[in-house]
């Protein structure tokens, strides 16, 4: 049946790469609900026709289009304002995120080459693990072709913040929506550094509570991997966190003031070239990166451990592209 042309509704164009996966499907659904999205491109190497047909029946504004396989990657990316990447393999029990490097590094490199060619100005939200290395990989790919803009490349560490807010709220007996815990560093084990001295609303936690919370936040991913007994890692909470983070990027692009979230970005906050901390999002992507603020002795010790591991993960990502 011929249809009347859709009126060009205002909004942003968003692509999800890896859209048929455990994260990709619920994330695609959440982005379809976001009123700031006018066009939603769903790309994967499998199953996108079904996911696209399904999601396209939702009576929300965004127009949904599906793209299947490498030969359709360029069409999926052309004209996009934000590209969200949850493509790649997840962990199984006993694995570290770094064990995913060999497969996911190549996937991220190929996808970023497509972004550099087809939507070099897009904001990139990188979810694929190991994030501590895949963000440096993306940066190197963009540098190679001359499109690198550090303001537009963000490693998604929002799930660490979501978990921290939840676990801290549980201990304090508060509504998690009222709790704000900065989580800095990176996204793996000891590189995940919750700054519990800076929790809002301000509170005092006992040393036992601090040990318990730090350990639970740093190992939240492993908690889910083990509970799923081989069926993958966090997907639903991650889709929620990714949608929340993408919404912050969209509100920044729209020009909203005071949009601040934690993300793993090119940074001068420490001596490392990449580090997660609070950033202010705006029309250009990252408009300001905030310093860590006052740390207590426990957090300073955690920071040293985090930096040591991060340095190696960053170098591994850089070397993968420069080799
Ligand atoms: N940053 C975070 O906080 C965070 C949280 C959870 C998971 N992750 C990571 O996200 C990734 C995806 O997890 P998942 O549970 O959705 O995995 P999944 O296996 O369920 O889905 C991954 C999807 O990626 C697709 N894919 C594979 N190669 C591709 C390519 N070359 N191009 C496009 N798509 C491709 C697969 O077909 C699949 O549909 C993993 O690396 C996981 O470790 C990160
Ligand atoms: O733990 C994982 O492997 C997935 C993700 O990074 C998470 O934190 O849940």
Task: List the quaternary state of the chains.
Answer: single chain
Order of helices and strands: EHEHEHEHEHEHEEHHHEEEH
Sheet with the most strands? 6 strands, parallel
- How big is the Rg? 19 Å
- Low-confidence parts lasting 5 or more residues at pLDDT below 50? none
Distance between the termini: 53 Å
Strand order of the largest sheet: 3-2-1-4-5-6
- Strand segment tally: 11
Quote the average pLDDT: 97
Number of helices: 10
What small molecules does this complex bind? nicotinamide-adenine-dinucleotide, (2S)-2-hydroxybutanedioic acid
Structural class: alpha/beta
Helical percentage? 40-55%
β content, as a range?
A: 15-25%
Shape: globular
Protein name: Malate dehydrogenase 1 (Peroxisomal)
Describe the protein in words:
- By secondary structure, the chain is of the alpha/beta class.
- It is built from ten helices and eleven strands.
- The protein has helices at residues 24-33, 48-56, 73-77, 101-118, 131-145, 158-172, 207-218, 220-227, 236-254, 297-322, and strands spanning 12-17, 37-44, 63-68, 82-85, 123-126, 153-155, 183-185, 192-194, 259-266, 274-282, 285-289.
- It has a six-stranded parallel sheet, sandwiched between helices.
- A hairpin with a 7-residue loop joins β9 (259-266) and β10 (274-282).
- α1 (24-33) packs parallel to α9, α4 runs parallel beside α5 and α6 (158-172) runs antiparallel to α7 (207-218).
- The longest helix is centred in the last third of the chain and has 26 residues, at 297-322.
- The structure holds nicotinamide-adenine-dinucleotide and (2S)-2-hydroxybutanedioic acid.
- The site of nicotinamide-adenine-dinucleotide has 33 residues, from α4.
């Amino acid at each position: 049946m011929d249809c009347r042309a859709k009126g060009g509704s205002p909004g942003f164009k968003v692509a999800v790469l890896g859209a048929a996966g455990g994260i990709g499907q619920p994330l695609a659904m959440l982005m379809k609900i976001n009123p700031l999205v006018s066009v939603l491109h769903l790309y994967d190497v499998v199953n996108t026709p079904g996911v696209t047909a399904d999601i396209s029946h939702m009576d929300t504004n965004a127009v949904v289009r599906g793209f299947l396989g490498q030969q359709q990657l360029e069409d999926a990316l052309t004209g996009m304002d934000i590209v969200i990447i949850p493509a790649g393999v997840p962990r199984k029990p006993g694995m570290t995120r770094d064990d995913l490097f060999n497969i996911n590094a190549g996937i991220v490199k190929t996808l970023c080459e497509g972004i550099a060619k087809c939507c070099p100005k897009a904001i990139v939200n990188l979810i694929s693990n190991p994030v501590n290395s895949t963000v440096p990989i993306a940066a190197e790919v963009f540098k190679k072709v001359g499109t690198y803009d550090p303001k537009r490349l963000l490693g998604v560490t929002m799930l660490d913040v979501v978990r921290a807010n939840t676990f801290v709220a549980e201990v304090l007996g508060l509504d998690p929506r009222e709790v704000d815990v900065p989580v800095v560093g990176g996204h793996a084990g000891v590189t995940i550094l919750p700054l519990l001295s800076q929790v809002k609303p301000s509170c005092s936690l006992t040393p036992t509570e601090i040990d318990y919370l730090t350990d639970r936040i740093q190992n939240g991913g492993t908690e889910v991997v083990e509970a799923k007994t081989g069926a993958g890692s966090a997907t639903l909470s991650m889709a929620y966190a990714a949608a929340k983070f993408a919404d912050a990027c969209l509100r920044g692009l729209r020009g909203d003031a005071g949009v601040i979230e934690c993300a793993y970005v090119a940074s001068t906050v420490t001596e490392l070239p990449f580090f997660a901390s609070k950033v202010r999002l705006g029309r250009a992507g990252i408009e300001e990166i905030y310093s860590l603020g006052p740390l207590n002795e426990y957090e300073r010790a955690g920071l040293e451990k985090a930096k040591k591991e991060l340095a190696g993960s960053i170098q591994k990502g850089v070397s993968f592209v420069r080799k």
